[in-house]
Amino acid sequence: MKKLLLTSLVALGLSVSANAADKSKTIIVGATPIPHAEILEVVKPILAKDGYTLEIKEFNDYTTPNLATEDGDLDANFFQHIPYLEEFNKNKGTHLVKTVGVHLEPMGVYSKKIKDIKDLKDGSTVSIPNDPTNESRALDILANAGLIKLNDNPLKTPLDIVDNPKKLKFEE
C-alpha cells in the first residue's frame, strides 16, 4: 500500500511540477487526520529523498477536501473509497478521479453500555453514517448481525429495511 501510494504521489508530483510555472516539486494533499494524514507523514520523508515536498492539509469532514481538490487548492486528497467518490461526484457535480485505491476503514458496532450486540434493547436508537455509501455499509453490518433484514438494493438506506424485529430507530 505504501509503495503504491508513494508511486501515485510521485506521479502526481511530476505532473503538477511539469505544469507549474515555477517547476515546484511540492505536492499538496488533503487528508482526514487518522489514519490518512498519519500514513502520509510516513511517506513524507521518502518523497523528500526524491526531492519532493509533501504538504499535508488535514480536514475533519469528507466534503471540503473533495471541493478543494476540484477547485485546484489541493493536488490530491487521500481519505475515501471509490463508491464514496462516485456518489460525491454524482451529487456535487464534481469531476474527481481515482489515482490509487485506498484501504477500507474497519467499520463495526460500538457502544459504551452494551457489551454484546444481542443485548441491544427493543426500540434502541442506532447511529449510522450520513453519507450514502457508509450508511449502506452500516446497515449491512446490522443485517449480518441479524438485527434487521434489507431488500436487495445495492446502496441501502433505512427505507430499504424490510424487517426490524427490535423496532430500532436510526439516526444519521
Give descriptors for this structure:
single chain, about 170 residues, alpha/beta, D-Maltodextrin-Binding Protein, domain 2, 2 domains, three-stranded parallel sheet, about 40% helix
Describe the structure.
By secondary structure, this protein is an alpha/beta fold. It folds into two domains: 2-92, D-Maltodextrin-Binding Protein, domain 2 (3-Layer(aba) Sandwich); 117-171, D-Maltodextrin-Binding Protein, domain 2 (3-Layer(aba) Sandwich), CATH 3.40.190.10. The protein has helices at residues 2-19, 33-49, 64-71, 82-92, 132-144, and strands at 26-31, 53-58, 76-78, 125-127, 149-150, 161-163, 169-171. The strands form three sheets. A three-stranded parallel β-sheet has the order 2-1-3, with helices on both faces. Strand 1 (26-31), helix 2 (33-49) and strand 2 (53-58) form a beta-alpha-beta unit. The radius of gyration is 20 Å and the shape is elongated. Residues 13-22 have low confidence and may be disordered.
Q: Briefly, what is this?
A:
This protein has 172 residues and is an alpha/beta fold. The chain folds into two domains: 2-92, Periplasmic binding protein-like II (D-Maltodextrin-Binding Protein, domain 2, 3-Layer(aba) Sandwich); 117-171, D-Maltodextrin-Binding Protein, domain 2 (3-Layer(aba) Sandwich). It is built from five helices and seven strands; from the N terminus they run αβαβαβαβαβββ.
